[in-house]
Amino acid sequence: MPEATVSRFLNDSQRRVIGFSLTLLALLAAGALLILTFIALARLAGYFSGVLWPLACAGVLALILRPMVELLEVRLRIRRVFAVVMLYGVFLIMVTGALVLILPTLIDQLIAFIAYLPVFWQSASDYVEHNYPGWIALGQRQLANPAVRQVVDNLSGEFKGVISQALPSLRAAGGSVLGVFAFAAQLAIIPIYLFFFLLSRSEPTRHLEQHLSFLGGSARTDIIFLVREFIGIVVSFFRGQLLIGLLMGVLLAIGFSVVGLKFGLFIGLTLGLLNIVPYLGTILGLILTLPLAFFQPEGGWHLIGLVLLVCIVVQNIEGWFLTPKIMGARTGLHPLTIIVAIFFWGTAFDGVLGMLFAIPLTAFFVTLWRLLRHKYFNAAAAV
């Protein structure tokens, strides 16, 4: 059809509007497709989490321990399999020594902590009833109201739902005898996966370019760059976070024991290791230690102040010294971004697997955005 005929039906403004509408529709369709793909992958990852998280743990550990295996192989001039066996032996000796030194105390404190929970609850209830009887009466009157009772029941149901979604592996592990054996089997398979991963000499991205030969040169280069960046972020994050969590656990255990908090060794080490998921140990620590410090027999406001001082000192050591020295600015994420990322990925992947990989995944997408902005958006703006 001649251009003059088309121009009789659509003027320049109408053609621009139609072109903009079609472009917007295409972008919306592409965005919807990406969202659906992400939801499908997240659901698959959640469904197969029992298979994926041992592989993920073994893969991350292999990336972290690979330099040590190569160092043993080169320095001692031994075969790689012997280097891996030697690394396993050294690790086993270190763990055994640490367990022999602190395991009896940890077990005693764990059993005593479990036995102390009913006493703690009774002490807290007696304190509230004795000092704040008006609040107890007010709560009882409000709970007698059907509307308030329904709201409380709904909130309780929502809280149980959040717990069941956030900790599906723990729920599955404790839900039945079969679940306990399945969880134990998943833990036991990690060293086996790790052994074979460490035997591999090739880098994870060594043959990636050959497998992506169907892509153009620029796209293939970008994908390889992003995969390498992601692996680097994962290695640096987990290597640093494991070390930081261990050091924080030792510092918290020493601090809590010195100020006189009951079960200080057990609670401090546990909270430090929970900081592998950023801020999880700190948040749970404040929720657990402050009431315990107040209601234990020799406790009170002075012990709360000492426990807070220990938490503040350890947190400042972690924020000002440990994290900058050990991790540097590899992830470069704001603390608020980290908190949002933990909840987002924990929900997306339906549990702890997403929470553990929240920071590396978020840092990867930040790297992807920077690459797209620098290589494509700035180039388009320059044109």
What can be said about this structure in brief?
With 383 residues, the protein is mainly alpha-helical.
Describe this structure in words.
This protein has 383 residues and is an all-alpha fold. It has 16 helices and no strands. Helix 10 packs antiparallel against helix 16 (358-382) and helix 14 (335-348) packs across helix 16 (358-382). The two termini are 32 Å apart.
Please give the structural blueprint.
Elements: H1 3-9, H2 12-47, H3 49-76, H4 80-131, H5 133-143, H6 146-166, H7 168-175, H8 177-199, H9 208-211, H10 217-259, H11 264-274, H12 280-295, H13 301-326, H14 335-348, H15 352-356, H16 358-382
Helix pairs in contact: 3-4, 3-8, 3-10, 7-8, 10-11, 10-13, 10-16, 11-12, 12-13, 14-16
Helix/strand-derived category reads mainly alpha
**Biggest β-sheet: count, sense, barrel?**
none
Number of separate strands = 0
CA-atom Rg in angstroms:
27 Å
Tell me the fraction of residues in β-strands, as a range.
under 5%
Quaternary state of the chains: single chain
Distance between the termini: 32 Å
Output the keywords.
single chain; 383 residues
